[in-house]
Amino acid sequence: MAVLTQPFADAVAEAEQIIRSAPQVRTEQDLIEGYDYLAGNIRGALQLAWAYERDFPFFVQSTGPYTKMGLDNPDTVYFHAYLRDDAEYVISGHRGSTADLSFQVLNGDYTPVDVPDSVTAFDDRAIDVRADGSYEFRFVPSKNHQQGNDAFPLPSGSAMLVVREVYSDWSASRGTITIRRADRAGQAPPPLGLDTMTKRYGVAGKILLSRLRTFLAFPEWFYLKLPVNTLTEPRSTPGGLATQFSSVGHYDLADDQAMVITVPAASRDVAPYQGCQLGSMWYISLDYINHQTSLTADQARQDPDGKLRFVVSERDPGVANWLERTGHGRGYLQLRWQRLTRDLTPADGPQAEVLPVAELPGRLPYYQQARISPAEFAQRIAARQAAVAVRMLG
User: Fold this and answer.
1) CB of 370 within 8 A of CB of 132?
2) pTM for the complete prediction?
3) How far apart are CA 140 and CA 143, in angstroms?
4) Does the chain have fewer CB atoms within 10 Å around its N or its C terminus?
5) For residue 243, what are the CA distances in angstroms to 27, 85, 149, 291?
């Protein structure tokens, strides 16, 4: 008798081999982190397979602290729902106080050889948010679309709606959001059958292997061909996000070295959100709950000259804008600006310098103003832990 879950079990075994043979595995700790990454992908693949419902869609959290992928932004809560391009959908909710709320329709999913096209992308400035924060708008098939701020077209091939809530202040309030197919209100999906269950386990296995292969290949496209310990000029983020620019790089530092990243603090009328994060060689965020591995403009300490200076190091440099490497001698760097009102230029971008940690007091501008005590730093970590706990309950 066939085992219903066998295709998924086979995919898990193949995924383990992908992790074991990955080029970034150099130490036992690398492998341990890889196995933890695998666990998150297993959870994520099952969730995605069971959420594949286009007639009675619902939002699921695409990635989070325990289902990481694709150099997830610690400041973002990601949601997605599946769509069909010949149906009308109603999106409604309540706008929270996060720095950005954006919507993006993709014509497929990420694969090891391709990035899906963004067929529609906009933020909440394009919709009518009422005085009480509530909103409602529709996605309609392109052939039925009429111009207006309460309806957006679904071009042929539209397959997935991605929603991002972006925090600059981690104490900001989450919003609410729902989706429904317009002509299915009051109806119910058919009962599950054995064929559906069999298909879902098979799909989950395919999603698992695709996710792993895709995001092991992704850094080669966008990061690893860049000179090490440098950052690119700000550029529109690949994938068609309407109002996001990013600057990327990868680092390789000894324990007695620090990288100082200097970037102008963007004015809030240009970029309400600006953030910097570190990522592991598995192309996921480092532990941002219990360590300060990312900072937003709201969380960072700005110097008197209007610059933000982040110090990436393993050793505690004693400054407020320390980005902890947490034992990762190699990794990825990403800066993001969102909800932009203009394109960024090289002058808006970062500069990176590597120097000995011991030389920071004499070489870091405004070092005395940047200093922080261990007790103050611990308070920062406690605030992160509390904020993420609240966010995860939302």
Assistant:
1) no
2) 0.93
3) 8
4) N
5) 39, 24, 18, 28
